[in-house]
Design brief:
By secondary structure, this protein is an alpha+beta fold. It contains three helices and six strands; from the N terminus they run E-H-H-H-E-E-E-E-E. The protein has a four-stranded mixed sheet. The protein has a two-stranded antiparallel sheet with strand order 1-6.
Amino acid sequence: MGGNGYRLPTEAEWEYACRAGMAGLFPWGDDIGKQGEHVWFGDNSDRKTHPVGQKRPNAWGQYDMLGNVFEWCADWFDLDYYRTSPPEDPLGPNKGDTRVVRGGGVGPHFPVFYRCACRLNGRPTERSGGTGFRVARNATL
């Protein structure tokens, strides 16, 4: 969290940005039928990543929060972390073997991978063409 302010978002920050003020399963509501308008996924991507900005943005103007590539979060992954975490802005466990990835990719995934709340894990030391990142920056007051 230190340094020059640029960093990976926490898992909580990532989900907050993905939802963009919406309470549904997806940033556009609960209608899975609109997935193709918003998300690159196995059925519409030819299993290839695409340049950002070709699908509809969320309500805050952010593109490709879901689909296209999984995105790294700063948090260590713990499957049961949210059973005991603080309810507001949890920072994730202090240690772990894998990091959280969010957002879903372009592979043959199930629709559940394209929900705002879907969370998986990955090893940052293992290279993958289906995983990227979104940069966050600390606010200056």
